[in-house]
Amino acid sequence: MRPARALIDLDALRHNYRLARLRHGSRALAVVKANAYGHGAVRCARALEADADGFAVACLEEAQELRAAGITRPILLLEGVFEPAELDAVERDDLWMVVHHAEQLRIIEAARPATPYAVWLKINSGMNRVGFMPEAAADAWQRLNASGKVGEITLMTHFARADEPHVIGTEAQISRFDAATADLPGARSLANSAGVLGWPAAHRDWARPGILLYGADPMPDAGNGLLPVMTLESRVMAVRELAAGEPLGYGARFHAERPTRVGLVAMGYADGYPRSAPDGTPVSVDGQPTGLIGRVSMDMLSVDLTDLPAAGPGSRVELWGNEVPVNAVAQGAGTIAYELLCNVKRVRFEYRDSLSA
Ligand SMILES: *Cc1c(COP(=O)(O)O)cnc(C)c1O
């Protein structure tokens, strides 16, 4: 059997959720969109269900997968509905939905729900992606309230740069949100992961942590005590000796400067390991640090074993996890941990959970 696998530590996931809730000081929706950032939405939601105040996903299809698996906690649709036909399912599955633009307002006004919808009204406080402009917030709230179709209205916004502690944009977003909503009743939700970890002024009624649940700190080096949830690992399947000057792999990107012992590892970009990772990207072989050499190919990659004489065929290779921070790989590859985690595929997923062991 091909040894490439992703080990998912559900105890670590619960640890991170509890840490988020403690740091934020009130309720937190666990964001499990995009298949729980590549970790498996149903397994992650089940592991969190006893603790979590609720979940957030991108769209109806993701929420339905969780309901079909027996998840009964509140689920928020972060992008709301895309068309009126989705409202039946919203009602049937008892979902909460974001309302972020005028068309969604009209859809709700025209609907005939048997029980009022729970709505999160999204305000654009400076990210300029989606959300009502601050000056339109009160009017949108009044329309929802007057529609008779809506019960509780939660007020929310989303940060563009909360992972940059020394940038003033986040403070400006908080004040714009507060000014726009000063006269409106209802719970507030501002903080994503970086907001939870770095911006106490953004701590309100509900947090929406995503990436931190999976143990990737949006502000690396902050020492927040998160535990990595995914370990992406495989094994050395062959070893080759290169003489000084010899090339390795596609495009001959790497040339041996010295006699080099190369470990070929069963892991490639078809598994989600980034092809853009440069020579020297950290990997761990039998617990020892070394680096990637040569271009990552579809089904395999190569690592430098020259200084690890005990390593050979069968040696365990960690691509990221407890020994190699996923943030370090992302930084080298010119991307973010979010993208690496979401991209993992083809490998076997194995789950560890001390509570259901
Ligand atoms: C994805 C998302 C989050 C979670 O963001 P993280 O940076 O992963 O914590 C929170 N809120 C909204 C609206 C989102 O789309």
TrEMBL record:
SMART domains: Ala_racemase_C. One of its GO terms (molecular function) is pyridoxal phosphate binding. Its EC number is 5.1.1.1. The active site is at K33 (proton acceptor), Y250 (proton acceptor). Its cofactor is pyridoxal 5'-phosphate. Residues 229-352 form the Alanine racemase C-terminal domain. It catalyses: L-alanine = D-alanine. The keyword Isomerase applies. The keyword Isomerase applies. GO terms for biological process: D-alanine biosynthetic process. Substrate binds at R129, M298. The modification N6-(pyridoxal phosphate)lysine is found at K33. Catalyzes the interconversion of L-alanine and D-alanine. May also act on other amino acids. This is Alanine racemase. The lineage of its organism: Bacteria, Pseudomonadati, Pseudomonadota, Betaproteobacteria, Rhodocyclales. The gene is alr.
